[in-house]
Design a protein that fits this description.
Low-confidence stretches of chain A: 43-76, 168-175
Distance between the termini of chain B: 55 Å
Strand content of chain A: 15-25%
Strand order of the largest sheet of chain A: 1-2-3-7-6-5-4
Mean pLDDT of chain B: 79
Shape of chain B: globular
Strand content of chain B: under 5%
Largest sheet of chain A: 7 strands, antiparallel
Order of helices and strands of chain A: HHHEEEHEEEEH
Number of helices of chain A: 5
Largest interface: A-B, 33 and 49 residues
Shape of chain A: globular
Radius of gyration of chain A: 22 Å
Number of helices of chain B: 7
Helix content of chain A: 25-40%
Number of strands of chain B: 0
Largest sheet of chain B: none
Low-confidence stretches of chain B: 75-90
Oligomer: heterodimer
Chain lengths: ~230, ~160
Amino acid sequence: MNDHEMTMLLERAGSGLSPDVADLVARGAARGRALRRRRRAGVAVAVLAVAGAALVPVLAMDGGRPDADGPAVPAGDHAIVVPLEEMGPVLATLLPGSRVVANPEPFHYEIQAGTVRWHGDDITMSIDAQGTNNPSTPEFRCHAFLQMSGCTELADGSWTMSHTLVGGRVEGPGTDLTTQTLEVRVWTPDGYLLQASDATHYFDDGTTTHELDAERLRKIALDEMWFD
Amino acid sequence: MSKDREFEEFAVARTPQLFRSAYLLCGDRHGAEDLVQETLAKVYVKWGRRIDNPAAYAQTALVRTFLSQRRRKTNHELPYADLPDVASGDPTELSDLRTDLHRVLAGLVPLDRAVLVLRYADGLPVDEVAERLGVSPGAVKNRSMRALQRARERASR
């Protein structure tokens, strides 16, 4: 194969592609906004760290205590960088080929979630910040969840478990669809509860075909896109 | 015009070309979509600052992101994916084409694939390919020659 033949081959193989340009641009921009926020948050943390280092001698001299009446913020605390309205679009960037279904209305202001449809399954990611001021350990919170077993510790000190739920729902006018949801929960040391789930059709014979297994759901839940 | 609007106009105009290159590098649509999104995200972050040539910047970001992704995903070489879906044209011809491309690019390391795509699909001169990939012009020539040799061997099997 010579230069000309290679050029012809690549030109022909790359022709006739019809990418969904609008979708790619929207997802790329959503991912870019998340990336920019994460970088800005990183800069802010670095500035605070420098300022904090400068304050320490002053506090030591006058016996002061930072934010004595405020909530304790553990070291290594993370901040969510994806706002509620972008939970779905950012989740979609992690699952190429998916489309945003909804950002479900949270039932608590400290919970945010997004759902995409991917190969027929509904994939949902949610972040629950209600526990960020809870002194309980992630191990305790994992074991306390419906008293279920199967909790394991991750390398960063988070605790995780997975479980399935079978439940009916109505999708569209008069259409009953029984679903099985495979859900992975991760309790982080700084108090967040991360949930990633895959809801799929539950067949009469008890079989299901989840597109994502627990390990891939866990990776989505722990993806660096969500936090600074 | 807002920066977001300017970025969107640029991205809409450049995405077909970026997608074509991404498809040739990755060998499958999903991989190409992911690569284009990550590239656009990086361009978005830089948008509004001084970028002399946004189109060249985006194309360079695409190739470097591809190489970075491959390094992250595995320490050993990934086989070139099947080329599943081209939108138009004669099915038989396209099927033959997919087979040809798969045969030619299978087994090439990611950097060699990047060299081939930049040189023969994008038509860039050796010096520019070298600059974009951060290697010497001599390395580009050697890799091109080696990749063509391997392609020739595979095409003749």
